Amino acid sequence: MVRSGRRKKGVRLREELTKGIFKQNPVISLTPLGLCPTLAVTTSLKNGIAMGLAATAVLVSSNFIISSFKRFIPREVRIPCYIVVIATFVTIVELVMKAMLPPALNQQLGIFVPLIVVNCIILGRAEAFASKNTVGASLLDGIGMGAGFTLALAVISSIRELLGSGAIWGYPISLSYLPAAVMVMAPGAFLVLGLLLGAYNLVMGARQAGGKAPEQICLCCAPRRSEAEER
Amino acid sequence: MNISGYAAIIFGSIFVNNFLLARFLGLCPFIGVSKRTDEAVGMGMAVTFVMTLASAVTWLLYNYLLLPGAETGHNIMSFIMGNEVNLVPILKNVSYILVIAALVQLVEITMRKISPALYRALGIYLPLITTNCAVMGVALLNTTDAPRRFSFVEATLQGFAAGIGFMMAMLLMSAIRERLALADVPRSMKGVPVAFICTALIALSFLGFAGILGAG
Question: Which of A114, A191, A221 is facing B197, going by the closest CB pair?
Answer without folding.
Answer: A191
